[in-house]
Amino acid sequence: MYVRNNLAAKITLGNLNKTNRLMEKRLEKLSSGFRINRAADDAAGLAISEKMRALIRGLSQAQRNAQDGISLVQTAESALGNIGDMLQRIRELAVQSANGTYTDTDRNHIQNEVAELKKAIDGIASSTEFNGMTLLDGSFAKRPAIPPTSKIDVTTGGTGKNIYDGDIPLGTNGVVVRLNPDEYINPDEDYAVSVNWVNGVAESLTIHKIPSGTVVTLNNPGPTFSINGVTFDISNASNGTVTGSQPQGVVRFYPGNNSPIPAVDNSLVLQVGPEAGQTLKIDIDDYRLSALNLNNLAVVPRSKAIEAIGLVDAALDKVLQGRSKLGASQNRLEHIINNLSAYEENLSASESRIRDADMAKEMVEYTKTMILAQAGQAVLAQANVTPQQVLSLLQ
Prior knowledge:
alpha+beta
């Protein structure tokens, strides 16, 4: 029998300390609800869980971003609805003014209402905002790139036989036109060409004669000028001077004959996913009077009223197309939100299985360690009593 080293007590104490440490861990897991409270608990599991947590938080924010996008779209679409209502009223007034039973004095009264409606349309397009950003003034519009191959020959004939043939860039986007054999232009006059763009494609054009004596440069009369209700923008022209000395007799707007026109994409970009590049673009056209080609719309005299019907129809078509695009964007955003919500739910469940504690299992383990601790304490007490038996040998 030995008394210098109580080996039984030491072994029992070591096991009791291990049991106490296990019991502390079980208590920590039960009180926190987490299986992994520090990297030492499960290094790989912690790394995976933290990545999932970052993704889950990104998904939650992406849903809020999409909701904000829906609010913006609804704001723009509502404003376009009001513009459409006013265009309908203008068309109604134009039809009324086109009736032969009215005098020009009557039409002037109608024109007064038309003028006020035009101001209201321009006001809505210029002042509809979301978070300080104007929505309907073309700030979020996009235009596709136009390659140099968009240029085609200008064919001349008749009284225009002395005009040079060749490639001539025309219009704000640098497109060029072909004159049919029976379409003549006078070499002593200047012309501008307006292009009807549909989905980035020039589908039709109109030739406008610039009034005699008008000299168009970048500063005279200004970066824009209007002919027959069509506004021309020469603010980006490198050779935009128009005078009677131009041998082509046309307006040259954009860079030289071989210069491509770059794309302009100012679309609103929504971050609708937790990762970089998971975005959605929303482009909103310009709906001011100038963009709707309604600056010079009038219902006096009767001939103007008849012309106004066609102009308003074109403007209405543009507004309806815009509302349709916005509606489609809203539907897409709602589907994105539904997908993000399901993604977040499933990812949260996966993260929970890695990180969260199984309370029933942990309670079983805690009960086991508690029983072992109590047993260890009892055994340690007995181990401490055993050396006292040596005293009986010394008596």
